[in-house]
Amino acid sequence: MTAWQWGGVAAAALLFFWGIGAYNRLMSLRNAIGEAFVQLDTHLKARNEVCGKLLAAVAPRLPSEQATFDALASAQAESQAAAQASRARPWAPDPAGTLAVASALHAAALTRLLSLLDHQAELRSETEIDGLVTELKLIERQRAFARQVFNQAVAQYNEAVQQFPTRVLANLYGFNEARSL
Q1: How far apart are CA 26 and CA 64, in angstroms?
Q2: pLDDT of 41 higher than 80
Q3: CB crowding 50-61: b at 16 or more within 10 Å, else e
Q4: Structure confidence at residue 160 (pLDDT)
Q5: What does pTM read for this prediction?
Q6: Crossing angle for the helix pair 93-118 and 127-162, to the nearest 10 degrees
Q7: Neighbours of 8 (CB within 10 A)
Q8: Which of the 8 DSSP states describes residue 163?
Q9: Which residues, including other chains, have CB under 8 Å from residue 112's CB and lie 6 or more apart?
Q10: Are 83 and 44 in contact (CB under 8 A)?
Q11: 165 pLDDT band (50/70/90 cuts)?
């Protein structure tokens, strides 16, 4: 073999191994999104569980506020469905976008319920309801932190997908940008 042929083989080998390295880096970053979503999903499930208990405890006592309870129950169902859709591929933009919207609606409905409870001193003074509200607030803080970790993982992945020359291979391998929540 001539020097040019050896040079061509070396360049091809270098490109091949660089491509494998780029693929592995993108897979690692995408897997980090999945791991961050597992943590977020744990808090979403806990929030839904505590919201369900809170609704069961409060709804019979305030029948005049049925619209508030229905809004939260509906938002909770949408949030659960969106989380379920995101579990398989949390880096996919469409399910993540649906989850972001559902989470915002759930947060608004939950804020409305908590505001209602703040104006019902006799209910808040009950140990069970106060405990559920306190637990819910703790879960919300943990969920917010898990969401931030998820969004950071998405940002790192998206940055890697956009970097040249990995951007060329990302399209070839089918890596698309992820969506934050």
Answers
A1: 53
A2: yes
A3: bbebbbeebbee
A4: 94
A5: 0.88
A6: 150
A7: 12
A8: S
A9: 68, 71, 72
A10: yes
A11: confident
